[in-house]
Structure formats: C-alpha cells, structure tokens
Specification:
The protein has about 425 residues and is an alpha+beta fold. The protein is about 30% helix and about 20% strand. The strands form 4 sheets. Strands 1-2-8-3-9-16-10-15 form an 8-stranded mixed beta sheet, with helices on both faces. It is globular.
C-alpha cells in the first residue's frame, strides 16, 4: 500500500481536463485534431522532468516513456495506456472543472446550466463519496474524465515510483494515444519502440472494476441504388432509394437486437447514419456482440431484410460492405491467465473486492490485444462519461494509483 505519499493525481487531472483534446471522426489527419498534441507535448515534458530520459511525443500525438527496472531478475515488461482525446459527443472546449470538497450527499447544480443536476437518487454511486472530494465540469461541457483520469493516474504512478525507488518493479512502459474515441487510437502505435509484453488500459468506471472482455465490432454498410426521375414525370419510372432505406429501418427488430433494449452480454444492430437521395441511399450500422461469430448472423439478418424488401423493387439494386473494427479482447487475454491473476492479487493487497465488468464497447485494449499486446482494462472512477454531468471521485483515482503500484510489485515478484 502507498504510505505517506501525497498524491498528485488530483492536480494533474485538473490541469489536463482544461486542455481541449476533442478528436474528430470526419478528419483525415493524424491525429484527427492538432490540439491533441498540446496535451501530448505537456505530458512528455512532465515525464522528462520526472527523469524518464526517453520520454517523448511523436508527430502523430503518441507519447512514449520508460520507467527502467530496478530489480536484477528478468520479468515481463508491462505497459500502462490511456488515451488523451475526448469525445465530440459533447463540447470539450473551455472545460472548467469544479472540486466539490467534502461532499455530503447534497444535490449538485452545475452553475452554467441549472438544468444539469447531480443527485444521489439519479446517480447513487455518489453515495460512495460522502466526505470525499468529487470533481464535475461547470454544466456547459463534458469533464474529460474519459480518459484524462487514466492519464493522470498513470502520471501519478510514475511520480510515485520515481520518488520511491525502494518499490521493486520491472520495466514499465507508458503509452498515451490520440483518437481512441473515434476508434483509431491503436492505428499508429510503434510496437517495436514500445517493446512491452503485456498491457493494461486505464479507461474504466467504478472502483474495483476491471474488464477482460469487450464487444466484437463490425461496421456494416448498405447502399441502395434506386432510379431517379423528375417527380413530375416519375410514374412507373422512379424507384426512390430513400423510401427503400426507410423500409429497411422500419423492419428492424424492435424488441431485440437494438441498443435501447439490450444490456449485459446481449449484442445489437445499431443504425448509425442514414444519408442519401432518391437515386442512392446509404445506411450505416454498428454490429456488436461479445461472440464474434454472432456478427455474421446479425449481418445476414440485415441482408435478408434488405433482399426481401427489394423483391418489390426489381429495378433497384443493393451493395453490402463489411469493415472489421475490433474483436473481443477476451479471446487473447484468456491465453495469458497471469494478466488477470496478478491484477486480482493487486486488488487483494489494496483490500478491494474485484468486480469483472464486460465493456459494451471497445477500448484501445481491444485492438492492442490482437496486435500482440494483450491489455485488459482497469477502473479509474469516471462516471456519466460523454455528458455534461460527467464527474469523478478523487479517492477512486487515488485508489487506482495504489492498485497499479501493487500490480507492478506483483509482476516483479
């Protein structure tokens, strides 16, 4: 356990969330927004000041650093990873974090929008933080705990290990990625430079939770080719692709296979974009399941629905396209039981009862696990992410730092 250590995670977090790092799914640049580099440069600078001589940020916004081993035995090299970008779902410009000290369970009305209220009834996890400090934004932006809490936790861990050299550990790699929120965080990692054996992402929620499973994910596109004609002279000529697309959407299952009616380990088909004209309409879907083979089943269902509708429109045609996004990391993590085994030992040393939560989404770890770096996910404490009521408890972040400090010692032993 960490004794007599003044955590830096709170102040680091407050500093980092003030930097706008929203990514942009429509951008063609790497990173998708240049402003992400502002945080990358700062993090590399802080790591160099700590004494990590190889710390640097590259031209794509990735940050790499090494904490050298201080033991004689050879043990696996462990990487800790978080992402620097925030989502574009909610404004991330001019974030003004507020520290609510010694929270006592009262309603919290965010000052810049009185309709944004945190209550223990709506958010019962607040009750875990009675007498503790919590952090919110001001009501007109997200907070950015996803995933600057993970960044701050890793930075505090680095500070702790460097200032306490008696803590025994093997080689530790630090990795911060851009563009995770748009599914591109792993695209340009230099794994040769990273040179890690195993990884852990810091991108989770409630205290004591960890995740070794995510959705498997495909992006599925249906392109409908209709027949255009002047609407004043369209009888027996026009085949309206917009109307065909609308029929497809209306024919989707409503009591199953939809995000709004599924939970836990249930997968779904989610229409994400609908765009087109009478001549050509494109439907884009997210296909998700914890069982990778289910993706094909869900896609075939979409194809069947589409083809049955097109029987009524013989002049129309259709194209299907599938793009693999990521796969359930559990398929790879299960090959290395020590990854979770050592994490559970670290939880025990911190007197935490571990809770295994499958992620109904993906993390950088989803793709990294299939790129040669198996990487389960560890809690940071983030709550209500991607929203103006996003908040986090300081004690959760500090406890995450403690788990990591115990984890590196378990690996060293």
């Amino acid at each position: 356990m960490i004794l007599n250590y003044n955590h830096t995670v709170k102040q680091r977090f407050l500093n980092y969330v003030a930097i706008d790092t929203q990514s942009d799914a429509k951008s063609k640049t790497i990173p998708s927004t240049s402003k992400q580099k502002n945080l990358s440069v700062l993090l590399a600078k802080e790591l160099l000041e700590m004494g990590l001589q190889d710390a640097h940020s590259d031209e794509m916004g990735y940050v790499y650093a090494t904490i050298p081993s201080n033991i004689n035995s050879v043990v696996p090299t462990i990487c800790f990873c978080s992402h620097i970008d925030t989502t574009s779902d909610c404004s991330g410009e001019n974030v003004q974090p507020i520290v609510h000290k010694n929270y006592q369970g009262q309603d919290i009305i965010l000052p810049k929008d009185a309709s944004q209220v945190l209550t223990t009834t709506k958010y019962p996890y607040l009750l875990n933080h009675i007498g503790q400090d919590i952090i919110t934004a001001s009501g007109d932006t997200l907070l950015g705990a996803d995933d600057k809490s993970g960044v701050a936790i890793i930075m505090d861990l680095a500070n702790y290990l460097i200032t306490n050299p008696t803590i025994k550990h093997g080689t530790i790699k630090i990795l911060f990625t851009p563009d995770e929120e748009i599914g591109k965080g792993s695209d340009n990692i230099d794994f040769t430079k990273l040179a890690a054996d195993f990884g852990y992402t810091l991108d989770g929620g409630n205290i004591a939770t960890y995740s070794d499973a995510t959705f498997s994910a495909n992006y599925f596109t249906i392109t409908i080719h209709g027949v255009s004609a002047h609407p004043g002279d369209a009888k027996n000529k026009m085949v309206n692709a917009i109307k065909i697309g609308s029929e497809i959407i209306a024919s989707l299952p409503k009591e199953s296979l939809a995000p709004e009616v599924t939970e836990g380990f249930e997968g779904f088909v989610h229409p994400l974009n609908f765009n087109g004209t009478a001549e050509k309409t494109i439907l884009e879907f997210l296909i998700r399941s914890f069982v990778t083979s289910d993706l094909e089943i869900f896609q075939e269902k979409l194809k069947t629905i589409t083809n049955e509708i097109l029987v009524k429109y013989p002049k129309a045609s259709v194209q299907f396209e599938v793009v693999e996004q990521y796969r359930n990391m559990k398929e790879k993590i299960d090959e290395f039981p020590e990854l979770i085994g050592n994490l559970l030992k670290a939880f025990e040393k911190c007197k935490l009862t571990p809770i295994n939560e499958a992620i109904r989404g993906g993390t950088d770890g989803s793709r990294m696990s299939f790129m040669g770096l198996p990487s389960p996910n560890i809690f940071t404490g983030m709550q209500n992410v991607h929203s103006r009521t996003e908040w986090i408890g300081v004690k959760d972040m500090e406890k995450s730092v403690q788990v990591l400090s115990e984890l590196v010692q378990v690996w060293a032993s």
